[in-house]
User: Fold this.
Amino acid sequence: MSLGGDAPSSALNRRQEADAGGGFEFRDLPPGSYVLTASKSGYFPPDHGLGAPGSQQRRFTLTSGQWVKDARVTLWRHASISGRVLDERGEPVVDEYVRVLIQVQVSGQTKLASGPISRTDDRGMYSVPGLSRGEYVVAVPSIQTLRPQRAEPAGRSSARAETTSGLALLQCPDGSTLRVGGGYPAPVRGAGPPRVYRTEYYPDEPGAADAMRVALDYGDDRSGVDFRLSPQIAWRVAGRVSGLDAPGETVMLRLIPVGSEGLGHGSETATTMVDAGRRFCFPQVPRGTYTLEVTPARGEFSITANPASLLSPATVRLPDTSGIVITPVAGAVPPVTFTRVMSESGAYWARMSLEVRDRDVDNVEVALHPTSRVRGILQLDPTSPAPLHRYGAMRLEPLLSNPLLVAAIPDVKEASDRARPWDHPREFEFRGVTPGRYYIRTAGTAAVSSVLWNGRDYSRQPIEIAEGQDVSGLVVTITTKTATLSGIVNDSRGRAGDAGVVFFPQDSDEWRDLGFAPVRMGRVPTDSAGRYTLTGLPAGKYFVTAVPIEISGRWRDPDFLASAAPKAARIDIRWGETHTQNLQLVALGER
Assistant:
C-alpha cells in the first residue's frame, strides 16, 4: 500500500504491506489531500485507468482528527492468452513471434491497438500474460524484409532463392537480387512453385478485420488459442515508381493485407526498397488483396503504457522495430499511446490497391506524391507569464479519418535569447505531412490560444492539408493564462466521494474526431469529500456534469455526451479565470 500527498510538491509518501486479509492502517497523518494506491505482482494497480468499477486512485481529504475506517482499494488480476503454433506437418514452430492486438475506443471510434509480443518455445507453446479486460486479436506474423543486393550477379528470370550469411537471396526478372531478412519461419523448400507462410490471424484469417475476437475479463486465462501454419503458393509483384525526383533516393514500399493498414510494423506481408532504376519487386507474395503504401512514417496505436519498457531486454519485439512515442491518447481504455516508426525517406507518400490471385502481377505503376510542409511562427501572448520550459514543444495531430494516419516531424527553432526564451517569436516547421486534417497543439503547461492562417483562427478546428500543398504563414500563439474550474459534487446522501466530473464543449461539432489529446474535454475524479478541480482549461463554453465513476470513462463517446448534455451545467470560461461550479450527481444509463 502507498499513501502520498495529492500534490507534486508533497514530501509525504508512506508505504506499508497489507496483512493477510488485505487490511492496512496509516496513522498520525496531518490534515490535507492524499492519494491511496496499491500494487501487487500479477495485478493491475487502481490507477491503471482500466475503466473498471473502483479502478481509479482513491483520493482523500482529511481534516484534523478525522478517522477514515472504510477505505477500499481494488486490484485487478492480469489475464492471459496462450496456445501452440504448429507447421503443416504438425511439428512445433520454434521461436515464432505471436502478437496480440486489442480493440480500443479512440475518439468514439473502435480501433485496434498493438499489444504485447511473445515467442514460442521448443514445444511451439506461447503465453501472453499481463492482459486486461477487453477483446483481443491474436496473430502469428510473417514478414519479408527485402533490400537490393546489388553486388550479386543476375540469375535466371524466375525468382530464385539462395543463401548468403544465413539470409536468403531472391532474384527478380529484371536481374536484381534481393536480400531477405526478418527472422520469421519459412516452409521447407521442395519441388514445385515457391511457397511461403502468410501472417495468420486467429483462427485462420489473412487480415485483422476478419479475425475472431478473444474476449477476456480480469483474471481470465484463455488457453487453446492455437495456430497451424499452412504454406501458400507465392507469386511475384513487381513494377516501377514515378515521381521520384532523383534516381537512387531511398524509398520503402509496404505491402499490407486489406484491413490491417492501421497497425504499423508487424501488419505488412513484405517491405521492399526501390532500386536505382526506380524498380521494385516483391518476389514471394501469398494470394490476397493488398494495399501498397509509401509513407513518411508508420503510425500505430499501442497499449504499451510505459514507453520505457520498450528498452527492457526482457521485452519481446519484432525485428527491425524502432518507435518514437508521440503522445498518450486521452481517454482510451486501457491506456494507449500513439507511436511512429520513421521510414528511410519522408519526402513521398503513395497508396494503391492490388490483388494477387493465381498469377504474377507485373508492370505495377506506383505514383509517388511529395509530402507537404507546414511552417509558421510560435509566439507567447504578451499578457501571459512565460512558461517554465524554454522549448517550444508542438504537435501536429492527425484526425482518425485521415487516409494515412502518420504524425509529421516537428522542428521548432531554438530561442535566440536563452535567458528569456519567449521574448521573441520562433520559427517552426513540420515536415513529411500527408494529405488530411490536423490540429496544432502544444505540450507542457502552455495552451494554444490562437492559430491564425489566412484570416481564420484554427485553434478549435483542424487545418486541412491538400495533396501537394505547403502551408506557410501560420501564427501560433500560446498562453499560460489557462482557467481553473472547481467545486463540490453531491448526491442524495451528501458529498459524492466516488464520482467522475466530465467536461466537454457546448458545440456538438467538437465531439468527434478530435485527434489524440483534445484539450477542451476530459474527466477528473472527486476526492473523498466530493471535491474536484479542473486546471489548464482553455477559454470556451463548456458542459460540466458529474456521473458515477464507472461510466465517466466514456467521456470521448459522442453518444454518451449527447445523453449527458441535457442535464449538464453550462459554463462560459474566460482565459485566466478561476470559476466555481457545484454539481449534483447525475444517473445516466450504461451502454
The longest strand covers residues 109-119. The CA atoms of residues 324 and 381 lie 30 Å apart. Residues 50-55, 151-160, 305-313 have pLDDT under 50 and may be disordered.
